[in-house]
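Morning!

As promised:
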Amino acid sequence: MRIEKQRYTERFGSIKINDVQKVLELDSGRWADLPLKEEIAVVKIEEDVIKHFEEKMAIVIPIKNEKLKLFEGVISGVPHECLIIVISNSERKEADRFNMERDTLEQFCHFTQRQALIIHQKDPVIAQALAQAGYTDLLNKGGKVVRDGKSEGMVIGLLVAMLAQKEYVGFVDADNYFPGAVWEYVKCYATGFSISQSPYTMVRILWRYKPKVSGEIYFRKWGRVSETTNKCLNSLISAKTGFETDIIKTANAGEHAASVKLAKILPYASGYAVEPQELISLCEDFGGVLPTTNQKVAKYGIEIFQIESRNPHFHEERGTVHLQEMLLQGLGTVYHSSLCDEETKQMIVKELLAQRALKRGEEPAKPHINRPPSKININSFSNLMAEHLDSYSALKK
Ligand code: GDP
Ligand code: CO
C-alpha cells in the first residue's frame, strides 16, 4: 500500500494528532531494493510488513440483527491473518439470528481454515466473568446481564482480543455493504501501526465518500453527524490551546483500531458516544491541561492517524431518529467533558436544537462511561473465559 506521509501534525500535550493521510495505491507492487524516489512525500508499506501487523491483530465485529448477507460479506473481507471476533447482540427468539450468524461463520472458517470466535453479548458466562473480574460497569442494574449497546460489544471484543494475546485490535461494523472496503480498512489499520513511532497508537478511518441512495447514488463527502461532532470537538481543543483548529476529522469513526496497550487504558462511553469519547478521554488524560495520571504513557506519547480510504463507505441507513440519537450521544460526551468551555457548550446546544435532537431548555444527558479495561482483574476474566473458549470457536477440530 502507498499512502501520503504525515505532512501536518498537531500536538496537544502528549498527543500527536496527524492530519488526514490519503491512500494513494491499494497495491504497491513487489518489494523493491532501490531507494524510492517518492519517499519525501509518500510511504510505501510492503506486503510482508502489513501481514506482520495483521497477524498480531484481532478484528472485532459488533453485530445486532444485521442482514446475514451483509455479515457474510464483511467476514469475507477481513484479511486471512487476522483473528475475527464477533460479538453479537442479535435476537435469539423464534428466529435465532445469533445461531444463523454462528452457522455462517463456522462454514466460512471451515472452508478458509481460519480461526474466529463468536460470542453472544448476553451469554451468562460473559456476565459472570465480568462480575468476577470486578467489571460491573458493563452489567445492567441487577448485575446479571451485560447492557445493550455497540460500545459494550466492543469492550467485550477487546477483552477477548487480550485473552487471545493480540497486540492490536480493530473494529469493523457488520453492516458494511462492500467487502472490499472492509479489506481496505484493515490494510489502513496495519499501515498506521507500521508507521507509528509510539506503542500507544490509534488509527481512525475517514471515508472518502459516503454515498446516499435516493433515486440515484450521490457521493457525499461526509455525513452531517460527523461534521457536527468534528466541529464541536475541534472547538473544545481550540478553546484550550487558543489556536483555532480543524484537525479532528474522524470524531465518529466507527471503523478504527488501536494498539491493545492504548485500547486498554481508554474509558468507553455507552452506545454511540464511544468513538468521540475516546478522543475526549485522551485529551483529558494526556492533553496537558489536566494532570496526567499515567506518566509512562505520557512519556512515550500517543499517536493518532486519520487515514482516508479509497472505497466509499456504504452501510445500512437507519433514518433520522438514529442520526439524532448518534449526534445527541456523541455531543453529550463533548458537553460533559471537564475540558469543555462555555462557548463550546453553547455551540453544542445550538446544533442539537437545530437538528431537533434536543428540546429548548434541555441539556444533553451525561453518558454512562465504562472504566478502562486495564482497571479490572483481567486474569480473573481470562480464567473463566478460557474454560469456554472452545465453545466460542468457529473452527471446529
Ligand atoms: P452507525 O453505523 O454508526 O450508524 O451505527 P450502526 O447502527 O450501523 O451500528 C454499528 C454496528 O454496531 C453495526 O454492526 C451494528 O450491528 C452493531 N450494533 C448495534 N447495536 C449493538 C449492540 O447492542 N451490541 C452489539 N454487539 N453490536 C451492536
Ligand atoms: Co452502520
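The chain has one domain: 2-222+249-319+375-392.

Hope this helps with the figure draft.
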